[in-house]
């Protein structure tokens, strides 16, 4: 795995946080939160595509590394 920027990790984590906020919502509240999640997802995918192009790597490989790095950033090193 190559080094992934803090910005890519932050964007991925934010998109996941927005997705998690959908739980328990319905109607207009659900629709509004779904749009926030969709936009966060677009933002992270755009950043991944730009990074892939800049580094000459595939978008899929960069996305995989971002997901792994975001999960690792959530881990508690004391556990």
DSSP, total strands: 0
Query: Counting H and I runs of at least 4 residues, what is the number of helices?
Result: 3
Indicate the low-confidence ranges by residue numbers.
none
Strand content: under 5%
- Percent of residues in helices comes to over 70%
Number of domains: 1
Order of helices and strands: HHH
Rg, Å, rounded: 14 Å
Quick check: average pLDDT?
Answer: 91
Describe the overall structure.
The chain has about 80 residues and is mainly alpha-helical. It is built from three helices and no strands. It has helices spanning about 5-20, 25-55, 60-75. The model has no long low-confidence stretch (mean pLDDT about 90).
Characteristic key phrases:
79 residues, mainly alpha
Task: Give a quick rundown of the structure.
76% of the residues lie in helices and 0% in strands. With 79 residues, the chain is mainly alpha-helical.
Task: Detail the topology: elements first, then pairings.
Elements: H1 6-20, H2 27-55, H3 59-74
Helix pairs in contact: 1-2, 1-3, 2-3
